[in-house]
Design goal:
Peptide_deformylase_sf; two-stranded antiparallel ribbon; protein biosynthesis; 23% helix; iron; alpha+beta; peptide deformylase activity; 181 residues; metal-binding; globular; Peptide Deformylase
Length: 181
Amino acid sequence: MTVQPIRLFGDPVLRTPAVEVTDFDAELRKLVKDLWDTMSDAGGAGLAAPQLGVGLRVFTYHCDGFAGHLVNPTFEVVGDEVQDGPEGCLSIPGLSWDCRRHRNVVARGWNMHGEPIEVEGTDLLARCIQHETDHLDGVLFLDRLDEGTRKEAMRAIRRQSWFDGGMPTIKQSPHPLFGGA
């Protein structure tokens, strides 16, 4: 097992857009294994490479009975349905807030061997795909919260023993937002 430390809110790597993977090699396979082992050890539904301090477009997921990874993912929204529900993040441990997301998405990318894959996500899996893809764009789910909820979230974060006192950065996601920044 290769569990790595998870970067916490305030670490600049979480706000830096990741670059596309170009080499589907042993190093990428090791990264996917590290992501998987760390996500599993932390009890998370997903984990993106920037959360381990690696600026590559890769994430793992394990939720709603589905598990896997995506390299260089994109997603498209299917339908108009949205969902509001609790969302947390391993980089913001122990806290969650209701966040609006699309209910159905189709993600496309590659596996660690460079083979194309497609994942259809509904409900929790759709939320996870959107959340992890946002991480790859330097966007945190806090950015998607309405202003009042985001202020409440920041107050709660500032009270956490792990918080280093840095000021938040709010980023605009390239993906559709619902009431966010």
